[in-house]
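Consortium newsletter contribution from the modelling node. Members have asked for a concrete example of what our holo predictions look like. Here is one, prepared for the calcium ion complex that several groups have been discussing at recent meetings.
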Amino acid sequence: MLIALTSLASAVSIAGLDCSSGAYTLSTCEAVNEMGASINSQYGTTVVDEGSANSRLTFTWLYEQLEDMRVSTLESGSCRTDGAFQGWHAGLYDGNGWSGMVDFGLPSSGTLDRKLHLASGVVDGVTVPMIGDRASSYNAKQVWLNTFNATDWDAGVFVRIQGRKGLYATLYGPCDAGIDPQVGFEDWYTGDLSAAQGRCTELSWDFDDGTLQGWTVEQGSIGVSDGTGDIAYSAPYYLRHQPFGSRDTFHTTSLVRSPFFTIHPDHTISAQMNGGRAEGTSNATSTPGSFADLAGDTNGATPGIHQMGVALALADDGWAAILQSTLNQTDVFELNTFDPATIAALAGQPVRLDFYDSFQGSWGWTGIDDVALTCP
Ligand SMILES: [Ca+2]
Ligand SMILES: [Ca+2]
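And here is the predicted structure:
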């Protein structure tokens, strides 16, 4: 009876790796087992099987590929120094596109551009235009690298199952701030990413879902506003001093930061701005080189620069350029654009936007909306 049960079990399939055996890196092993189960479930029959005649359709092969990637990119510190990834993303592709699941249960799907080796897609109903826009490959090594922005990646392997159908199994996460995943994954990928790097990718934030859309409030009193108290706001939500009633009076210096992104020489970077000029009713009288040059609060007696604006911050936090309203003192928005030559000179660099306010007084507030990187 015991023999019969054992042979029956091995004849059906082997469900996965024994992650507790000590032979595997636990996080990678568990991710591979979960991905294999998810892919089998999505396909509707067993394709990832330790007993498969195709060695690439086994848990062991997937583990070896993804562990090699983890060690050579994450543990080596070329992408991230603590060796960890955030989660997994796995699914199926065919001649028309791809669909899969993210580890925490989000469905994803999209299309493939086989000529450009680019993938676009939708995750949980939200269009993710950046998937593969900077890099996406299924090269001879059968690896797939997507870079979403200047820090976030999704990378792993794909395997043909039959005809034009196949599976993909990837890990995802961020590189350390300031490390471009296209650089961090270069040695593992062993391919030319320059063509993908040459593509201009549009990106924008309108805050119209009432959230910061990935921007972070570091300090101070700027938040997402629905325009309450501001008579002529042009859109449902934007970023502004909160609450509006205290807009011209004393506050701790405010700083709100965008996610990192990488500049392309063809990018135009602009923002709709309303409220006061750089110094309320006046234009800027000095140029801060970084956030550290600002006063800690808006009291005129506090040492440092008192000003409002949007700075283009480099990975070392230095400010390469500043966008400030010079025509305003109005609730109506106007479009302000960074100097194109300054943007072109920063091509390839990971940067982010710092929206700051260390000024108080008449028109002592500024609002921003529709912050956008556009391409020709
Ligand atoms: Ca808006
Ligand atoms: Ca202010």
